[in-house]
Design goal:
With 363 residues, the chain is α+β, with helices and mostly antiparallel strands. 25% of the residues lie in helices and 37% in strands.
Length: 363
């Protein structure tokens, strides 16, 4: 009897312990805390600074019109030349021989014309008196006409030979600056092979190589400020004059020519210049770098939907900037994007949104 009381007390204590355990509720799982940003599209136009150089509006390749061996050269790269100035000469011996031969042919035809003319005059005097026949008269007249035609042909041949001889001198067509030399004294050249490149005096262009993606908009009519790279204080205004219709296979760029107005002193041919322009604005969304992740191989961001559940949304990034990216496709205005704390998220996971600042970005 004395041992039944302790046993009942132990059982009562155990029952109380079990009853207390049954009343405790399981602790709720803590949701991931993320920073978010509500996105709104805006027109993004990147400011692009391009570097190019000053070139002549008109550039010409100078070449001989006949072939031969170069025997002299009177100008070099960088020289300023005048119109009708002789720049180089070919060896004239062969063409001078042609001129001499043409002269001899002219003299021979002149003598033949004199002889046939005298014979024709005699036939003219004899025919009325009946001392010659009509056929002999006609033959004398035909011989005279033939010799006269041969003389004209010989004279034309002489003029052509003299013209060819004049082509042994390479003469400048206009004032300008020699920018390139492609041949040297002693070299045998063919006709039309470039010998010099001439930048003509007159209008100047600033020429830039621009990536095609920056030219989705038509050229602006607004003035562009062009500055000298070495001294930005030297500047002038210009307007887009020409855009080449083809893309360079080597660089993937197109050439843009900006016509310069009132070129200042110091902005010479070949001077490196820079110009700043804005690309065409397009609806886009700017997000911090931390918002960007990837879906397999494509860029993506985490978007918060109903019930604070996240989903992975593919996006198209059109530009990478310092500290942020510009998204062109994949997001709509008003959507909420995770910009912080998205490293351990999985599709369909519920998250806790951190309080946001006045700018709409989570703290």
């Amino acid at each position: 009897m004395t041992m039944s009381r302790p046993l009942s007390i132990v059982c009562l204590g155990g029952w109380l312990v079990l009853t207390g355990c049954g009343e405790q509720k399981p602790a709720e799982a803590e949701l991931p805390r993320v920073g978010v940003q509500r996105v709104e599209p805006s027109d993004f136009a990147a400011s692009v600074t391009l570097t190019g150089d000053v070139q002549a509006r008109v550039q010409t390749d100078l070449s001989f019109r006949v072939g031969g061996k170069i025997v002299s050269r009177s100008v070099d790269v960088g020289d300023h030349i005048k119109a009708n100035q002789v720049l180089a000469r070919l060896d004239p011996k062969d063409l001078q021989t042609s001129v001499d031969s043409a002269k001899a042919e002219v003299f021979a035809e002149q003598a033949r014309v004199t002889q046939t003319a005298a014979a024709f005059v005699r036939q003219q005097k004899l025919l009325p008196k009946g001392y010659t026949s009509q056929s002999e008269y006609d033959s004398a007249e035909a011989a005279l006409r033939s010799s006269q035609s041969a003389l004209k042909a010989a004279q034309a041949q002489l003029a052509n030979a003299r013209e060819q001889l004049s082509y042994t001198a390479l003469v400048a067509e206009a004032d300008g600056v020699i920018t390139e030399r492609q041949a040297e004294v002693g070299q045998v050249v063919q006709a039309t092979v470039p010998i010099f490149s001439l930048a003509r005096d007159g209008d100047r262009d600033a020429v830039f190589n621009v990536y095609e993606s920056l030219l989705v908009a038509p050229p602006s009519e607004h003035a562009i400020t062009v500055r000298l790279v070495d001294n930005p204080k030297i500047q002038t205004l210009g307007y887009v004059r020409e855009i080449t219709p083809t893309v360079s296979a080597q660089s993937g760029t197109v050439q843009v020519k900006v016509a310069l107005k009132n070129v200042p002193a110091g902005m010479e041919l070949g001077s490196p210049v820079s110009a700043t322009a804005d690309a065409q604005g397009r609806p886009s969304i700017e997000l911090p770098w931390s918002a960007l992740t990837k879906d397999l191989h494509d860029p993506a961001v985490w978007v918060i939907g109903e019930g604070h559940k996240v989903s992975l949304q593919k996006v198209k990034v059109i530009r990478y900037l310092t500290g942020k990216v510009v998204v062109g496709e994949g997001l709509k205005g008003g959507e909420t994007v995770v910009v912080a704390g998205g490293q351990l998220l999985n599709p369909g996971m519920q998250v806790q949104v951190a309080p946001t600042t006045d700018s709409g970005v989570a703290q």
